[in-house]
Write a structure and sequence with these properties.
Elements (H helix, E strand, L loop, with lengths): L1 H64 L9 H8 L3 H6 L31
Length: 122
């Protein structure tokens, strides 16, 4: 009987030792996971920062390749497109696809510049 008790005590001691080892390993692995999660968070923030920097650089490169407006060379050509005058729109010649309306038959509703199909009189 004493031998059985001694064997059980040894088994309990081994189990306790194994439990302590597993507990320490568990703590070590939890700390490692927490450290890796912190690193991952930092990497994501760094990646986001790098992506934002790349977008800014791509935008700058795109702006560099875009030619500047030639407003200083041809002011009379570019000004009407930039700042349209209300009177110029009515007085502008119609496009080749639309026939010019006679000035004496022009009504205020037709003066907007939109093309209206002429209807035959009658």
């Amino acid at each position: 009987m004493n031998e059985a008790v001694a064997a059980l005590r040894q088994e309990v001691a081994r189990s306790y030792e194994r439990s302590e080892t597993l507990s320490k390993e568990n703590d070590r692995l939890r700390a490692l996971v927490a450290s890796l999660q912190r690193d991952l968070g930092k990497n994501r923030a760094e990646n986001k920062t790098l992506r934002n920097q790349i977008r800014a650089l791509e935008k700058r490169l795109h702006e560099i390749h875009t030619p500047p407006p030639d407003s200083a060379e041809q002011p009379e050509v570019t000004e009407p497109r930039v700042i349209p005058q209300p009177d110029t729109r009515r007085a502008a010649p119609s496009s080749p696809a639309s026939p010019p309306a006679p000035p004496e038959n022009k009504e205020p509703a037709d003066a907007g510049g939109d093309f209206v199909e002429p209807t035959p009189a009658g």
